[in-house]
Structures are given as structure tokens and as C-alpha cells.
């Protein structure tokens, strides 16, 4: 999959609960850092561990994740990161756009990670591609890197 080269690449790792988003993001991060590529790994859930949400503010935690991602990414980018892996549930095109805007200066792709033997649920596709998480993490991680067109060697 060809993308523009802005000097920095982001991969949004989407999927339902228990799909392995965080574990696969960490596995991809290990692969890239082992290749001496400056990489940040961010779990969206960790960016909104705040409560209680203000009353009558639907989507509060999603907006908080978007704002915090922008701040955390700016810090990682200033430290020299060129790759960023962001794992979390991203259910709408609006959320994808918010996360993409937060990743300033990055070419952003999104993968949907599916649990093994799960039927496609018919959701509105916001991902660029889907990978089934039915093998050892390094194999799933390398498949995602290959499809995304990221460094594989």
C-alpha cells in the first residue's frame, strides 16, 4: 500500500474488545525499535483514564483521547519519533479524522484487527485494511507492517 512520505508514519490499530490491539501494537513497536527506527506506542485507553465524565457530555472521553493524543504525540515527535502506533477502538470516521489531525505531520493509515474466527460484523469500514489476529504476535505484526508498506527489514 503506497503512501506519501512526510518523514513520519502513524498506524491506528482498531478493533473490538479482546482483538489484541494493544499487544499487536507493542509487538510492532518492538520490531521497529529492534531495527533502530524511533517509534512511539500509544494506547488510547490510557489517554482517557479520567472520571467521572461531566454530566450530559456524550463523547467526553473520545474528545479527551483526541486532545491527549495530540499532546503526547508532540512530545514523542520532539524526542525524534518517526513512527507511531496507536491502539484503540475507533468506531466512526469522525473519530478517525480527530486522531489523524492529532498526529501532526504524519501519514496515517488504519488497520482493523479481528479476533480469530470472528464474522465480519458489517460495521461501516473506516480502516484501510483488516488483519486477523490468529497467529503468534510477531507474525501478525509483520503482516501489518508489510501491508502498510512500512519497513520490514
TrEMBL record:
Entry-linked InterPro entries: P-loop_NTPase (IPR027417)
Name of the featured protein: Adenylylsulfate kinase
